[in-house]
Design brief:
Layout: E1 8-11, H1 21-34, H2 41-45, H3 52-60, H4 67-83, H5 93-102, E2 106-110, H6 115-125, E3 133-135, H7 148-157, E4 164-168, H8 171-179, E5 183-187, E6 202-204, H9 207-212
Parallel strand pairs: 1-2, 1-4, 2-3, 4-5, 5-6
């Protein structure tokens, strides 16, 4: 079996390394409610993986840059940060990252999270001191499924699109990577079905599953 063609791994974080997608959705739902807007949890949950610039207009028609959008976004951030201590890493998340680093991959986080939320989440995953760089929504003009964050992560990794693979858990990760010319390995741990994750070159249950099957995966060395 031939070795991996990839030299860099771009890592989504929410739903991929940490079990935070429901917490994000509930923070958004509550923030909408606190501002007098009734949005269902299910509607928000389907949009987790996008940045706020995409999610807000998608579920409510409100632009992030509007006064109401800014109030909702600020409230969501406060709610989510309050719940950060309750968020847990998926099993073997840190071990997977450590193993990939040990095998020589350049590792860069490529997340739609805000920078001040991303670093605590990486800490929770046991990955903050293992990765070579991190890009967040603060590094991109537009969030996923636009490719800006993936392009920024490629810049951090100093590799071409063909040399990198994205690991993510949503259709938005796959679409953002595709638009940047990057292939994707998908995890079911974010709550999406295999049909939703169509387009990934391989699908695993989560970090523990990829780690167990690493030598038969697109990341074999």
């Amino acid at each position: 079996m031939t070795a991996s063609l990839f030299s860099a791994v771009l890592l989504d974080v929410d739903g991929t390394l940490v079990d935070s997608n429901d917490a994000h959705a509930e923070a958004w739902r509550q923030a909408f409610s606190d501002n007098g807007i009734d949005v269902s949890f299910a509607a928000v949950r389907r949009c987790i993986g996008m940045g706020g610039d995409k999610l807000l207009p998608e579920v409510s028609g409100i632009e992030e840059s509007s006064p109401t959008g800014q109030k909702i976004g600020d409230r969501r951030a406060a709610i989510f940060k309050q719940g950060l201590p309750t968020i847990r890493a998926f099993r073997d998340a840190g071990k997977l990252v450590e193993t990939l680093k040990g095998r020589g991959f350049t590792l860069v986080a490529a997340s739609s999270a805000k920078e001040d939320e991303l670093h605590p989440l990486l800490e929770t995953a046991g990955a903050r001191d293992l990765i070579h760089g991190a890009t967040s929504s603060d590094d991109a003009e537009e969030s996923k499924p636009e490719p800006d964050i993936v392009h920024a992560a490629l810049g951090h990794a100093k590799v071409s699109a063909a040399q990198a693979v994205m690991i993510g858990d949503t259709p938005y990760d796959i679409e953002a990577a595709r638009r940047a010319g990057v292939k994707t390995i998908a995890f079911r741990s974010g709550g999406w079905s295999d049909a939703d994750l169509a387009g990934a070159i391989a699908i695993y249950d989560g970090p523990w599953d990829l780690l167990a099957r690493l030598d038969d995966s697109p990341l074999r060395k």
